[in-house]
Every structure is written in C-alpha cells, then in structure tokens.
Design a protein that fits this description.
Elements lengths: L1 H17 L17 H28 L37
GO cellular component, one term: mitochondrial inner membrane
Main location: mitochondrion
GO biological process, one term: mitochondrial electron transport, cytochrome c to oxygen
C-alpha cells in the first residue's frame, strides 16, 4: 500500500515536471497594459522629488527663525515660594546617597 502511494506521488511529480510553463511567465498582480519598469521608474522619481521638496521646505522654514518675547509679568496669583521647607531641603533618608 505504501509503495502504491509513493509510486502515485512520483508519477504526479513527473507529470508536473513535464508540463509546459505558462506563457505569461506566472501570475501578474498588476494590469498587463502597464510596463513594470516604467511604473517603478515613475515612482522612484516621485519619491525623490517628494524628499527633495520636503527637505527644501524644512530648510526654508527653519532658516526664518522665530520671534522672542519679553518675560511675562510677575502675576500675584502665581505666588512662587522661594523659601526653604521647614524640615530642610535634604532631609530625606536616601539623601545621603550620592546618586539620589
């Protein structure tokens, strides 16, 4: 029984090997009216032009600079506290470690 299955498998492999290849060269994923080399060259040019355009726009935008404003007024509601805490600034138990 096993030899019959092996012989059948070998026969089907031999039949596939003798079969002629398809005339189109395989399954085409795109339309047959377009040339693949033309499409590839077109998209390479589009990509390069897009990268060059983005680079030039970024360089132009960054070369303009940006405005600098004066310091904001000292609003009273901000109430910034510059006084040390009553318990000290470095009173934590881990504050003696050099990495903390």
């Amino acid at each position: 029984m096993a030899s019959l299955a092996a012989r059948s498998g070998l026969r089907s492999l031999a039949a596939r090997a003798r079969a002629p290849a398809p005339a189109t060269g395989g399954r085409r994923m795109s339309s047959s009216a377009h040339d693949d080399a033309y499409e590839t060259a077109k998209w390479e040019k589009i990509t390069i032009m897009g990268a060059v355009t983005c680079t030039l726009l970024a360089a132009w935008n960054l070369s303009k600079g940006h405005p600098h404003f004066d310091e904001p007024p000292a609003y009273p509601y901000l109430h910034i506290r510059n006084k040390e805490f009553p318990w000290g600034m470095n009173c934590l138990p881990l504050s003696t470690l050099t990495w903390f």
